[in-house]
Amino acid sequence: MLSLHAHGAPPALSGHLPMGGSDTAPHSLTVDSQSLIRDGRPWIPAMGEFHFSRYPAAEWREELLKIKAGGIDLVATYLFWNQHENDRGTLRFDGDLDLRRFVELCAELDLALVVRLGPWSHGECRNGGHPDWPNEVDCTPRSTDLFRQLKKGKALPALSVYNTA
Predict the structure, then answer these.
(1) Distance of CA 30 to the CA centre of its chain
(2) Fewest C-beta in 10 Å: which of 10, 37, 51, 102?
(3) Strand arrangement of the beta sheet that strand 47-49 belongs to
């Protein structure tokens, strides 16, 4: 005879993953062993992607409201290097590239935001989001060929001990 004894779920473990924040933050985000907790309530985020720099700033609000209406409460966006520093040393965060304005709009609409920093971007962006100018300066491109990098003396210092050539 088979018998089954069901016990209640163990209490959630909390406090084991300290997270940054401040007492003055408008929202809280904590975690226990069973869930994310946002503003004191369990939260299962539904995330969508919106590349703000590819849309006219005048249309951001309307598009974000459509996203929110679809049940998305967490938006991710790329910060494409080739759009914000296309010319070496000239940073642009104006107009359709105004990150602060986008962040503030997401907060106003109660959408959590993840800003995906480069330098590499997998957002169907030319050169992975890299501008052209690094190719014109002494800059080693991304490579999976560790031995070639070691031979050139370009590998991480911790790996240089293996360079016996």
Answers:
(1) 18
(2) 10
(3) 47-49, 74-79, 112-117
Per residue in 29-64, pLDDT tens? 888 888 888 888 999 999 999 999 999 999 999 999
d(CA 97, CA 79): 9
Three-class DSSP labels, 14-81: ECCCCCCCCCCCCCCEEEECCCEEECCEEECCCEEECCHHHCCHHHHHHHHHHHHHCCCCEEEEEECH
* Tokens (6 digits) for 139: 């800059």
**CA dist., res. 124 & res. 82, Å (int):** 12
The residues with which 32 forms a beta bridge, in sequence order, are 14
Task: Quote the pTM value.
Answer: 0.74
